[in-house]
Design goal:
Helix content is 50%, strand content 16%. With 298 residues, the chain is α+β, with helices and mostly antiparallel strands.
Length: 298
């Protein structure tokens, strides 16, 4: 059975790091106050954002450690696991951590669209790397949240805390958009590998055995999280990953339809459809004609 430390409340995580719990549902934790520790595996029951403000290789995902320079942000959604078994050596954690419980934002505008911040489901190696200017903005956001936590709680506290968290997340969305642009060359490589993956998939017998390729399958094959992969494809091509897969599917279908020795049903099965009518419906939606009509027109 896998061993890990589970943090279900903000106070548990704050106490673990020798930080005072300023609010039961939200806190900004200073990791430099924590005692030296060995690498471990942790499960978080709340939203967690690590701001690594010095270079330190204490974050691990899978079999790899990641050394982050100043101002790297790592996002963890409730229920996710982070860390792994280390070499037993102690290290002093550094940086700040924003933690907020889903109950804090329940029923608020942020709570209703928190799922739009897809970077909470990115893998650790898909972290947000900040420029010096961006780092100052993020520190300012953290400082504003911390100021409200240190202020005597009044009727404005919750609104201001949540507003500043939302402001912080909106800046992160902007900065991730910038990162997608500045990392254009490696991202172009991912697009090319995606294209090759789909070509190879449809030219093999995998559709008949595995069915239609899913976004999750393609992301796994490219060693990317599904959300990061989906956001990358959308920003690079203007299409969702699902739309891109369907476009490749339709292009392949058009070629197969011209084989007079194959029925439309055979083409559908070769492409991974369990039911030919589903293929016919999708083809007509994307092309404007049924497969049979397309064959006759061309």
């Amino acid at each position: 059975m896998e061993n890990f430390i589970s943090f279900d409340t903000i106070s548990q995580y704050s106490a673990f790091n020798n930080t005072t719990t300023m609010h039961p549902l939200v806190n900004v934790v200073d990791l430099s106050k924590a005692l030296p520790r060995t690498q471990g595996r942790y499960r978080f029951g709340f939203y967690t954002v690590f701001l690594k403000d010095i270079k330190c290789g204490d974050l691990r995902y899978g079999c790899n450690y990641y050394d982050y320079e100043e101002g790297t942000l790592v996002f963890v959604a409730p229920g996710q696991l982070l860390g792994g078994e280390g070499d037993g050596k102690q290290f002093q954690p550094k940086g700040r951590v924003l933690v907020f419980h889903p109950d804090l934002i329940r029923g608020t505008s942020l709570g209703k669209h928190i799922q739009d911040y897809s970077f909470f489901s990115y893998d650790v190696h898909e972290a947000l790397h900040l420029s010096e200017t961006e780092r100052k903005i993020i520190f300012d956001c953290f400082d504003k949240i911390e100021f409200e936590l240190q202020h005597a709680i009044d009727k404005h506290s919750k609104t201001l805390i949540i507003s500043n968290i939302e402001l912080f997340l909106n800046y992160c969305t902007r900065f991730y958009d910038r990162q997608f642009i500045t990392r254009e060359i490696p991202h172009k490589g991912a697009i090319e590998r995606f294209e090759t993956l789909l070509n190879d998939y449809f030219q093999s017998d995998r559709p008949q055995t595995l069915g239609l390729p899913s976004v999750g399958y393609c992301a796994d094959e490219l060693n990317l999280s599904a959300n990061y992969f989906g956001d990358l494809i959308k920003k690079e091509t203007g299409k969702s990953a699902q739309e891109y897969i369907q476009s490749k599917l339709i292009d392949t279908a058009k070629e197969k339809i011209f084989d007079p020795n194959k029925s439309v049903s055979e083409v559908a099965y070769e492409l991974g459809f369990k039911y030919p009518q589903h293929f016919t419906r999708l083809f007509k939606q994307r092309v404007g004609h049924t497969p049979q009509e397309y064959r006759m027109l061309n």
